[in-house]
């Protein structure tokens, strides 16, 4: 487990040199908000990271329902049963095993692993623009129909889940990077992901924090390049 701090944001990384899986701890006055829950074996490391910081985890927020983002959720909830879990209204359906699509959505199958044995369910569902502590929820569908990003109002640090990746080169969800193609393989709608990426770059984040790869400071220029590259491929 590796812990890196940037302002109020702590990146917790597992398997950093092989198959990096990130989750984040966002420091608030009264505690920590955990964003995503990595893989099943990561529970102990996540709890240790909070202990190192010296504050309790008071909220758990999920960017989407894939297994590498909710994997340790059940084990963490066993230790912290009172902590509320937040997910988007749309991905709450996916969390409950519903892979159906709405009429207005791209009619391609939802991809990626959704744990079939996950017991934990969301306590609170989020809509675009909702606030969780210092974090503003931004609907950013594409990787999954209900993917959500979170912007820290204090610093403009942006946690995007798999809407972007930086491992293997910065890319929008669905754009295959040969050195790390896995987020692309799990992406439901490339067209929708591109529209969400354009929406996210408009908030002009100070830090881009992704599910797979290193954090990027002053990321707007490289985010725009990733958007342009993907746009060319999709023409």
Overall description:
The protein is of the alpha/beta class. It has a single domain (2-234), classed as Metallo-beta-lactamase, Chain A. The chain is 26% helix and 25% strand. It is built from 7 helices and 15 strands. Helix 6 (190-201) packs antiparallel against helix 7. The protein is globular and about 50 Å long.
Give a brief description.
This protein is 26% helix and 25% strand.
For the structure shown, list the relevant keywords.
235 residues; six-stranded mixed sheet; 26% helix
| Spatial sequence of strands, sheet with the most strands | 1-2-3-4-5-6-7
Q: What's the total helix number?
A: 7
Q: How large a portion of the residues is in β-strands, by DSSP E?
A: 15-25%
Distance between the termini: 40 Å
Flag low-confidence runs. Answer: none
Mean pLDDT level: 97
Structural class: alpha/beta
Biggest sheet statistics: 7 strands, mixed
Estimated radius of gyration: 16 Å
CATH evolutionary superfamily: Ribonuclease Z/Hydroxyacylglutathione hydrolase-like
Tell me the number of strands: 15
CATH architecture annotation name: 4-Layer Sandwich
* Helix and strand sequence: EEEEHEHHEHEEEEEEEHHEEH
CATH topology: Metallo-beta-lactamase, Chain A
How many domains? The number is 1
Helix content: 25-40%
CATH top level is Alpha Beta
Overall morphology = globular
């Amino acid at each position: 487990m590796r812990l890196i701090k940037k302002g109020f944001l702590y990146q917790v990384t597992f398997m950093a040199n092989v198959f990096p899986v990130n989750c984040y701890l966002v420091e608030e006055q009264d505690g920590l908000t955990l964003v995503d829950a990595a893989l099943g074996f990561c529970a102990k490391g996540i709890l240790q990271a909070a202990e190192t910081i010296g504050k309790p985890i008071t909220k758990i927020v999920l960017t989407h329902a894939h297994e590498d983002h909710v994997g340790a959720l059940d084990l963490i909830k066993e230790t912290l049963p009172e902590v509320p879990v937040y997910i988007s209204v749309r991905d709450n359906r996916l969390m409950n095993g519903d892979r159906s699509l709405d009429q207005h959505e791209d009619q391609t199958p939802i991809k990626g692993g959704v744990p079939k044995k996950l017991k934990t369910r969301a306590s609170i569902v989020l809509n675009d623009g909702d606030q969780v502590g210092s974090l503003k929820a931004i609907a950013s569908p594409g990787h999954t129909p209900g993917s959500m990003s979170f912007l820290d109002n204090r610093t403009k640090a942006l946690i995007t889940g798999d809407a972007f990746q930086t491992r293997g080169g910065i890319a929008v969800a669905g754009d295959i990077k040969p050195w790390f193609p896995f987020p692309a393989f799990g992406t439901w709608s490339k067209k929708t992901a591109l529209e969400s990426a354009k929406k996210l770059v408009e908030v002009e984040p100070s830090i881009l924090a992704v599910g797979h790869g290193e954090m990027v400071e002053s990321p707007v220029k490289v985010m725009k390049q990733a958007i342009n590259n993907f746009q060319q491929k999709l023409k």
